[in-house]
């Protein structure tokens, strides 16, 4: 169990290093205050994963450092049942001059493990890290991925009641990331509480039971992961717009600069002519675009999500054929054909207009769950999972008795 109540943390910011000394000697204020966290409250129950989203500077790293005791809070309370460990910034708690073996002991002691516990789990930590003979080399010779392997292996084998995971996990290779995710799920099933900080939005949706969004040091949203991810996307899209003072708020579920928008949209199956289609059927998207000023660099983006809010498929026209132009006050119709070879279920379609390859620089228009459709039944062979991949099977029949009999 993790319980955080009215947490506050601020930092004194000095224009020059000498101002710190002058303030101490003269008593005159020579700093300004940066509030990193303000009135932050939340709970993570046993067996639950809480995701934390927020842009750079929102207060995520400060929160984790307060919870691990690296920093002290100005006000508020942090209550954690049992031992807490975490994978924070790469290299935290490690000595680059010591070997991997030596760092296991040093880091585990700082996490609160006894010498007996370290001895009992020493080989398990080495085996999980999969560092091989490198475990005897100085840490300064390790890559960032190797450091992450060692850090995660030590932290998860400390048998914590609460586990904190920061973005450091992203530096590992795909195989080891999957191994870590599996171990995190096992930890959750055993009743552990997890605070998961990541920019991997799909991982937040899949792994987390709830998610919260930090903005300006405050919790601006806490609830279902899909809602938190949608708000985070909105914050990121607004960032450049707010800097240029071009943001125009609307209340129809869409947001963006509104230099261009999608004024009409329809989704239907090629054969069903409805929003109910069969797996393998072509999904038609008919859209009408309208620009309120001439734009030379426009991309249309489409993102399909399943009922859990997981991103199933996303694409934009810039990736396919480059940008296109829109003439002011002129409507432009677009039709997309998507072969929907995906599993039966309910899906939503998010639509966007932006410049370039992504929406983070100039987001003209973004609408989460603008359309929806449902897939029922299969066209062709059945499959398991989310989607069907092209698969060709070659069966060796030389030792097949039936084949030999037919040949004779």
TrEMBL record:
Gene Ontology cellular-component annotations: membrane
Organism: Halomonas organivorans
GO molecular-function terms, A-Z: ABC-type transporter activity; ATP binding; ATP hydrolysis activity
Span of domain ABC transporter: 2-241
Cross-referenced InterPro entries: AAA+_ATPase (IPR003593), ABC_transporter-like_ATP-bd (IPR003439), ABC_transpr_TagH-like (IPR015860), Bact_Polysacc_Export_ATP-bd (IPR050683), P-loop_NTPase (IPR027417), Wzt_C (IPR029439)
Keyword ATP-binding (UniProt): yes
Family in the record: Belongs to the ABC transporter superfamily.
Keyword terms: ATP-binding, Nucleotide-binding, Transport
Name this protein carries in UniProt: Lipopolysaccharide transport system ATP-binding protein
Pfam families: ABC_tran, Wzt_C
